[in-house]
Amino acid sequence: MNTIRINRRAVVLALLCLVGIAFFVLSMMPSSSEENMHSLGQKILLARDINARTNFPQQEHNLEKGYSAENTSVEMVLLHDDDGGKVTSNDSAISDGESRRFIRRMMLHAWNGYKKYAWGENEVQPIAKKAYSQGIFGGAGSGLAATMVDGLDTLFIMGLTDEYIEARNYLKKNFDITHVSGSLSVFETNIRFLGGMLSAYALTGEHFYIDKAKSIGDVLLKAFNTQTGIPKSSLNPSSGQISNYGWANGGSSILAEFGSLHLEFTYLSVITGNTVQAIRDHLDRIEKIGGLYPNYLSADSGTWTGTHVSLGAMGDSFYEYLIKSYIQSNKNDTQAWRMYTETIDAIEKQMVRKSKGGLTYVAEWRNGILEHKMGHLACFCVGMFALQSRLESDPEKAKRIMNLAEEIGNTCHESYVRSETGLGPEMFYFTSDDEAKAIVGEHGYILRPEVIEGWFYLWRLTGKPIYKEWVWAAIQAIEKYCKKEGGYAGLVNVYDASGGSDDVQQSFFLAETLKYAYLTFTDASIVSLDDWVFNTEAHPLPILRKLHPIRHLVKQT
C-alpha cells in the first residue's frame, strides 16, 4: 500500500514537473508581436571573410539573400534586400535597399577609422588620426571604449557581423568601469554605457552583458548618496567622490541628467532589482512654476535653483523619458503619463510660438520671459510629440499634437536647408527676418542626431515620403562635408563649407545618427515601435511585457 502511494506521488510530482517545464518553455518563446518585429527578417549565417568586403555591394547583396559560410559563430537577423520603397533625391529615385547599403558603408567607414586609430579608446580624431577622450568619459586612458559600446547595437542591427563580434569579444574581456580613476558624467555613463549594455542584452540574450550592466549600475548608484537622493552629475568610480558642475547654476543638479535615468534603471531593475523611482516621486511632489520644470535643482535641499525652462540642453531628455517610461511600461506607468501631459500642456501654452515667417518652434523660458531661439538638441521633441500623438485617446488632440510635431519637424528642416552645407547649426533664432539661422559662435554641427531622429519618427508614424527624402538629403550632406580619411568629423560653420572641421567623431554618431538614418529605410517591423523604445542615445530597450529578453538573436558556439 505504501509502495502504491509512493508511486502515485511520484507520478503526480512528475506531471507537475512536466507542466512546469512546459510553462517555462512557453514563457520563453517569443510572443506573436515579437515574431512580427522581424516578420521580414530572416536568420542567416554571415561570412567572416573580411576580404569579401572589397566588392561590398555584391557582398552585401549576397548576405541579404541568405549567404552562409563555414567558421561562422553568430546567428543574426537581417533584412531581405527587396529594395522596398523609393526615395527621391536630385530627380533620381533611390531604392530603400540602396539607401541602407549606403548608410551601412558609412557605418563601416566610421568604425574602421575608430578601429585603426583609436581601438579600445573612447573616440577618434579622424583628421589627426589618433584617439580622443572627452572629460565625460573619465579622461584619457579610461579604457571604456565609448565608441565601441555606443556602436554595438547599431552594428548588430545593420548585420555587420565581423565588426559586432570583434566589439563584443573586446568588451567581454576588457570593459571594467570600476577601475576608472577620473570623474565620469553620471548622465552620459547611464545613457551610453548602461544603455548600450542593456540594449545589447535585450537584442542578443547574452548574459555577460547583464554583468557589465550591473557593474555600471552599481557604480552609478554612488551618485545618489545625497541628502535628497537626487544624484549629482559627476562621479569618480574608484574613490566614490561625487560632485556637481560649478557652472550649473551654482553647483546644481541638471534636470535632463538626473531626470533621464528611468528607462535604463527600470530595465536593469527587471533583471537585477535596482530602482530609481525616488527621483520621479520627488519631482512629482515638488511645486512647479506654472506647470513647468526648471532646469536646475539642488541635490541638498531638493528645491529649484533657477527659472530657466528648455526643451533643449539641460531639460530635453527629462520630458523624453517621461513619455518613454509610459511606453516602456506597456502603458502601466500612469504617473509618468500624467506628469508628461501636465507639463507638455503648459509648454504648449507658454513656450510654443510661430514666427513671422510661419515657422513653429519651442522657445526657451527664463524668468517669465521667452527667448526666441531653438537648439538642435530641442529638435528631438519632433519625435516625442509624434509618439504622444499615437498615445492620445482623444482623436482631435492626437491630430493637433501630430500637426505640432510635423510643423516643428519642418522648422528643423529649414535650419538645415538655409545653410550652405545642408546641415543645421547648434542653435537657431527667430529674432529677425532671417529666421531659423544661427549667430556667431553657435553655427557648428557636431554630427548630432536629433533632426534625423525626428524625421525617422515622422516617417514611421505618418508614412509621408517627404521625411525619408529629408533624411536622405541630410545623410548625403554628412557624407559630402563631414567624411574624412579616418572617419567623420563635425563642422565648425555650417554656413561655410570651407570653414573647417572640429576633428572629433562623436560616439553618438554611430549610436544615433546612423542608426536612425538606417532604420528610416528598413521595414517598420525592424526594431518596431510596438516592441521597442529608444533611450536618448538611441539604444533600443524592450517594452516590458515579459521579464526576459525579447529575442535571443545571437547564439555563440
UniProtKB/TrEMBL annotation:
Pathway field: Protein modification; protein glycosylation
Disulfide bonds: C379-C412
Domain of life: Eukaryota
One MF annotation (Gene Ontology) recorded for this entry: mannosyl-oligosaccharide 1,2-alpha-mannosidase activity
Cofactor(s) listed in the protein's UniProt record: Ca(2+)
Pfam family for this entry, one: Glyco_hydro_47
Positions annotated to bind Ca(2+): T536
GO terms classed as biological process: carbohydrate metabolic process
Keyword Calcium belongs to the record: yes
Keywords, alphabetical: Calcium, Disulfide bond, Glycosidase, Hydrolase, Metal-binding
Gene Ontology CC: one annotated term: Golgi membrane
Catalytic residues of the enzyme: E188 (proton donor), D316, E426 (proton donor), E450
EC number: 3.2.1.-
Leading EC class: hydrolase
Family: Belongs to the glycosyl hydrolase 47 family.
Name of this chain's protein: alpha-1,2-Mannosidase
